[in-house]
Each structure stands twice: as C-alpha cells, then as structure tokens.
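User: Fold this, then the next.

Assistant: Folding the first:
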Amino acid sequence: MINKRRSAVVLIGLLAATVLTGPVPVLAAQEPVAEPPKVELVLDVSGSMRAKDIDGRSRISVAQQAFNEVVDALPEETQLGIRVLGATYQGNDKKQGCRDTQQIVPVGPVDRARAKAAVADLKPTGFTPVGLALRSAAEDLGTGTTARRIVLITDGEDTCAPPDPCDVARELAAQGTKLVVDTLGLAPDEKVRRQLLCIATATGGTYTAAQSAEELTGRIKQLVDRAKDTYTAAPTVVGGRSVCDGAPLLGPGVYSDREKFSEHRWYRVPVRPGQELRASVSVGLDRPVNPDYGVLLRATATDGRELVRGVDAGSGRTDVVSAGLRWSAGEEPADGPSPTPQASTAVEATTVCLVVSNAFAPRPGTEADPGLPVELTVDVVAASPAPTAPDLGRGWVLLVLLTVAGLITGLLAGLLTRWWVGTWRETR
C-alpha cells in the first residue's frame, strides 16, 4: 500500500513538472554509439582507365597498387567495402552499360587476401555510371548513428546521367544519411574536376587530383584514417518552420537542416533566468551562387522583438558562411518580466526564437533543390556577466569629484603658463 502511494506521488510530481516546464525540447545525441568506422572504396574501371599517363603506367594498375598498399595499412577496427563501375559490360548498349556497377567486397571486417584478389582481376571495360554507383554505395554502407565515408576514384565524368552524380550527392545529403563522399581524380580534366568537386562539396567531403601512384596511395590512406579520426555522432536532423509558432523546440546540441535560397527557417530554444543562449549557424555553399551574399542568425522574442543578431557576408566563392550570437535571459525578457528570486524553483523557461536567413541567389542553371545544407549549434549555459568596471560614483559625489579635478587641473595649467612666460621674457 505504501509503495502504491509513493508511486502515485512520483507520478503526480512528474506531471506537475511537465506542466510547469513545458514540452521537452529535442536533444541532439551527445554520446557516439560504439560502431566501427565504415568506408567503401568505389573504383572506376571504365575503358578510359587503360590510359598510360601516370608515371608511364596505366591508371588501373596504379589504382590496383594503391588499393593493395591501403588494404595492408587498414586499422583493424575499420569495416571496408569495395564497389566498381564499368567493370563487366563490354558491349555498346548504353542502357545496359549504364547499369554496370557491382560490390565486389561487402562492407565488413577487413579480409585482406580477399580484397586484394578482387581488385587484382579488374580490367578496364565499359561505361562510367558514377551517379548510380554512388547511390548503390550509400545502400551498401547502410544506416547508422555515425558518419560513413565513400572514397570515389575515377578518371572521367559520368557518361550515363541521369542520375547526375552531383544531384545524387545532394539527394543523399538532403536525406540525412550522414554520408561523406571524398573524390580522387586521376585525369587533369577541368570538367571532371568540377563534377568531382561538386560531389565532394555537397556531402562535406574533399576533392583531390592524384597525378602519381605515390599521391594516390597517400591520399587514400589519409581518407581512410580520417574515417576513424572523425568518428563522432552526426548532427540530429530537424526541420525548421516558416514561422516561430510551432517550430521545433531544441535543446543543447548540433542539428542539420536544409534551407532554400533566400529562405527563413525558425527554431525555438527554452532559456531560463540566469542562463545564456549561445548559438551558431554554418551554411554550406554546395553549388555556384552569385557574388555578394550573406547569412543572418537572429534571436527574437515570441512577439517578434529582436534580441540579438549575428551576421556574416561575402563577395566571392567560399565553402561555408557562418554567424553566431549570445544572449542572456537577464538582458531583456523575451516573454515578460523574469520571475523574482523568491519565486518557485520550477521557473518557467523563456522561449527564444532562432531564425536562420540567407541572402544567396543561384547562378543561371543552378538547381534550387534540395536546399543548402545548414548546421545549427545550440548551447544553453550559466550566464557569464561582464566584470564590473571601476565606479567613480554617482550624483553629488561624482559632481564634486569632477569639480575638484577641474580646479586642480586649471591651477596647474596656470602655474606652468606663468613659469613659461617668465622664462621666455628672461631669455629675451
């Protein structure tokens, strides 16, 4: 009987706390799940890989050597998969050739002998369905709570679009798949460079041109190691609203969203008296935009009054534009006067509206969808007021102090002037 009464009291207390404090905000995952880092190497085996222009050797032989050295150096905890494109179909039927992509080593613990044998048998053959290979590689890696990586090695642009590989990369990023694509180009071609750069930028990856076997091996090793070094929980995916009312309620953490050109995305953050809101936003420019652009992060009250803002602007091509702000609940009440110290300890939190705005305009021919990648960082900490400055006093005390200082200054100036005039006359 006593246990039942205690349970009832606890239940009533929890209900009361929920009513007093309002809805529970979304919280970003703080602790990474113990998953092994996952990487899939995607190799272009199309006919152009026969070209012998890397240290006098064929591109495919250089790639095979690099693969063997990377497999030998892989950390034991890394799960590796290998996918190829253009490796089997030798005919001229483009429709069939553009479906030519296979996973030759499934993602899992490294079997070095099997991986080397699978790569050693590859011979340059067919078309270059990069977009399809990327989409399939994402499926190979599956889902998870941590970021996964694709390392794409190719010497040419996609010959099978649609799907366009750059569109596929944006599609994967927009789905919140927590996938990073790093690209390695084996041919000094400007068109290929632009395509690979677009793929990498859309997913937060990197692009590198490899012109020697040593460069290719070193870069692949570096990217595989990075999968282990950057092994952290990916941002929580949220969807901002067009107005503050009904926008997602966020707690401390890191969040990702997508924002269209010249759009405003709203979020809400509860802040209690004595706490300080710290927020920052980064917008990735994953496609060409017109010069003279900017991003604005504002904190407002629920009635629309602006509390503080942070802004960043640019006039050229950059990868990321960021802005940040800080606001303490004691600076200005967002929803009315703050409760007095004598009030109940279950103080209702002030709702602060965060709005992310951008002033980007796409260049002609640039796709508007999906929106630009947005990463929003939110933290709520104890307020840290600025230290008190030395106080000279107020009212009559300050007036007397200033009067005395003025008299002394005037007296000293007069004495110095008389001395200087007297000295000047004596010298004449």
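Now the next one, as you asked:
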Amino acid sequence: MGIAGLIAISSLLGAGPAQAREPGEQAEPPRVELVLDVSGSMRAADIDGETRIAVAKRAFNEVVDALPETTYLGIRVLGATYPGDNKKTGCKDTQQIVEVGPVDRNAAKDAIAGLKPTGFTPVGLALREAAKDLGDSGSVRRIVLITDGEDTCTPPDPCAVARELAAQGTKLVVDTLGLAPDEKTRKQLVCISTATGGTFTAAQSQEELTDRVKQLVDRAAVPPPVAPAAVTGAEDCQSAPLLAPGVYTDREKIGEHRYYRVPVQSGQELRASVSVALDRQVSRDYGVLMKAATADGRELVRGSDAGSGRADVLSAGLRWSGDEEPSPQASDGADDDDQPAVTTDVCLIVSNSFASNTAASAPGMPLELSIDVVDASHAPDAPGLGRGWLLLLVLGLAGLVAGVLAGWLTRWWVATWREN
C-alpha cells in the first residue's frame, strides 16, 4: 500500500493531512478586527505631548487609508460609552462600531472620529466579543488589540480568554500593542499574544503605532501556504487517530500524554516531530518527549528536548524504519525480497514535564505535529563481511598474517641489534 492508500485510510479513520493551496485557488479574504481601548486613561497626554486617544485616532486613519482592498475590516471599542462608577455596568462597555466586511474608509474614519475616553477597561470581554465578530470563516482571522493599561474588569481574565480562543482553532491570532505600557500591562499583553501565537509591541509614538498596525494587517493578507489539520490525540494507542503524512495541530495539558497512530510498511521510514508552544509561565526545568511504540506498548525509539528558563517553543523528533521490526514471514529463512510488505501501526506518544501555577481547567498548550513516511535509507552492505563463518575466516587469516609479520620484524630487529 503506497502513500495514496495511507491518505485514503486517513480520510476514513482519522484526520486528513494539511494541504498546500493549489496555484490559482481562491482563498477566503483575511478578516481583521481592530480593538481600541477608549477608557478614561486614554486621556493622558504623554505621547509627544498629545493625548493617547488623539495619537491612536490618527494612526487608525492612516491604517484605514493603507488597507488592502482584499482585507475585511471591523472595529470594536471598549470603555467608550459609560462614564459612571458602577463597575458592573462599566465592565460590559464594549461595542462593535464597524462590522467586519469590505473596507468602507469614510465610514470607518467617521466612526473613529467621535470617540472620547470614558470608562473602564474590559479587555477580556472585548476579546471574546471580537472573536464572535470575526466568525469562523476567512483564510486568516486576526485581532489587533491597542490599549494603554491592563484589564480593570477581571473576570474574565484576558489571558484565560486568549487561551480559550486559541483552543477553539488555529486560525485566530491576537496581536497586542501597548501605548506607553507599564510593566504589569506589558506582562498581560505578552500573555495574551503568546497564547494565540501573536506578537506584542510597545508603541511610544504615533509613527511606531501606525507602522506596526500596518505590518500586522499586511501580514494577515498573506496567509500561510499550509494550514495544519486539527486532530485530537487519544489517551491510549488503541483509540488513537490514524494519521497520514502531513501537518497537524492539537492541544496538550500539563503532564498529559497524547497518542496518535501512523501506518509504516517494511521498507519505509517514519519521520515525525512535535513542537509545543509555551503559552503560559511554566516552572524551570521542563521538557517535551516524543516516543514511537508498538501497539502493545513496546518502545521503538524516542526523541526529547529540554529547557530551563524562557523558551517560546520546545521541539522533539524521531526517525524509525519499518525494517527494524522483524517480519513474521521471514522466520523460515526465506529471502526478505520475496516477502510481501508488512504494515506496522506505530504509536506516536507526545508527553511533557511542565509544571505551572495556571489553573488545571485551562486549555492545553498548542502543539504542531509533523509526520512523513518515506522510503527507508539503508546503509550500504559490506561485501560479505560480518556474516557467519566467513567473518571468522577473514579475522583468522588477518591474525595469522599479523603474527607472521610481527615475528619476522622482531627477529630482524634482534639480529641487527647484536651485529651492532
């Protein structure tokens, strides 16, 4: 059974592999929502002598003018309408002022022009609602959050919300931009962006803010050529999904083991790797382990990676050849070339040794699994050496010749020494 057969099996029993976009294939438009903090703190006049909201408005206008025609844009604000002190009411203050869709530049600028710094900072709620605004379609979905302070309305905690959003799929990214952020704000924004595979940037001027937002919007317009397929690993090998060669995504909790199966024929070689993104603070001295085993639990090979301190991604990989598994048909001494190909279901096991103070109910950390099955790369055979009695004969002859030469050289050296 060839690669085409494996893919056919996968379509019936497990997830399909990620596929590159065919040339000329029409991609869905990227969808971007700009989320702007309009809370009371945006009145501070500490960016080039201007208020933060004035700088943000001008940056927004420049970004809107430069938007690619193919990008669907939406704008959501938080803390923009409620001026009172009732926290319960103020922490619900988030509205979408421009629906996600083809760019209407005049409408977007008009919506931004009337904004005035007003109330609280419900970042977590705004992120959750922005994800709903973007829907579940589009080649890329991106939230660009611009704020000058940390959330004042927890719960929901913005970091927890970001992890929830990341756990729902692989196409939603949250990038964060901090306007003159303090250390607490910076840590929160880094946590939000890291959880979704996004980026954090501190902006100290209008030029920095404008340039960075343009970069993020432009990046959304260029989706990756391969979108990993979502798969859910099992708790044991018997119930694990059967995977064909491809790229897959899953999520793994701290201390969890995830099982997957890959069929490998004799004469083929399995090459697999896994990368786990650390989307939260973890304790020192940790690692990621990937093992290949038989269905009955016998380990075949393993690969591991360990870290201590800050690391954004940990990876591990392994290689295993189907020829390393003895074929039952070959036990009668027949030539291996005459035997039919034997397929072995190899269990891939991904585990970790992380420890964290994050609540146990938090979604698992994102992992990416790459699988390939290729023709085995055999080492060249020696010309008959190492096979039974022939090896012993060669070694014996070599020892005899070496002994004769050593004896002759010794006698020559003694005779020469006596003459002198």
